[in-house]
Design goal:
230 residues; Rossmann fold; 6-stranded mixed beta sheet; 4-stranded antiparallel beta sheet; 30% helix; 24% strand; binds adenosine-5'-triphosphate; binds magnesium ion; AAA+_ATPase
Length: 230
């Protein structure tokens, strides 16, 4: 039997360890295969806290994250992170070329069964409108937009089932923004029956372009988005 949701959060709570302030207030969320969900909300409302908790990157104070309807055992976390990929607003690249960065995940234990595919990497960089020399560029020489493209290709080549995109195009020029949107759309279209994304964006035009179900975060509370009609 197939679980109804790829990813679920039940009453997920995150507190500030120092002050015990609630950062995320019992968030309930479910993401089905084929869905694209957008989260908007003011700065500091807890969107990144929520995404990082969902990605199991930060400790959860209470509640559950379910993957295909099940709790995630400690030993299953590497496999979970491989399937549910968090894309940060500010990409973190290692020293070396773009290709070195794309090869990097394959040096990790969680990917020991997978091999770097240069043709695939070139295909993804072409899809993002990058030139032939992109893979040979030094990570330190990349523009902000190029660095984000490189970090997204690094994730997409591993074919995750869920993408958690935390303002991946904030502060990028329109051309780089479209490149990121195209990469994500191609990834989604390649297997809509098994993939889903959660995208945090502050840009109303981007929210319109991407479409999908909308949610909003206010002061740590995640709710369905309701259009305010004046
Ligand atoms: N690890 C942490 N410990 C304590 N407080 C934190 C931690 N991480 C985030 N916060 C606080 O939680 C609140 C929500 O932060 P968060 O980064 O989730 O905001 P956001 O909605 O993503 O904002 P933005 O749109 O600016 O990215 C902020 O007040 C932030 O200072
Ligand atoms: Mg944020």
């Amino acid at each position: 039997m197939t679980a109804p949701f790829l990813l679920e959060a039940r009453a997920l709570v995150r507190r500030d360890a120092r002050t015990a302030t609630t950062l995320l207030d019992a968030a309930d969320f479910a993401l089905a295969a084929g869905e694209r969900v957008l989260i908007t909300g003011p700065s500091g409302s807890g969107k990144s806290v929520f995404m990082r908790a969902l990605a199991l990157l930060d400790p959860i104070d209470s509640g559950h994250v379910l993957w295909h309807g099940r709790d995630i055992d400690r030993h299953a976390i590497p496999r979970y992170r491989r399937s549910v990929a968090y894309v940060r607003q500010r990409p973190a690249l290692v020293d070396g070329t773009v290709e070195d960065n794309l090869r990097y995940p394959y040096s990790l234990q969680a990917y020991r069964d997978a091999r770097f595919d240069r043709d695939r990497a070139e295909q993804l960089s072409r899809a993002a409108g990058r030139g032939q020399d992109f893979l040979a560029k030094r990570a330190g020489d990349l523009s902000g937009g190029e660095a984000q493209v490189a970090s997204l290709i690094r994730v997409l080549q591993l074919a995750p089932e869920v993408l958690l995109l935390d303002e991946p195009t904030a502060s990028l020029d329109p051309e780089s923004t479209r490149a990121i949107e195209t990469l994500v759309a191609d990834w989604f279209d390649a297997d809509r029956s098994a993939r889903a994304s959660l995208w945090v964006s502050h840009d109303p035009a981007q929210v319109e372009r991407i479409g999908g179900r909308r949610m909003t975060m206010h002061a740590g509370r995640l709710t369905a988005y309701k259009e305010v009609i004046e």
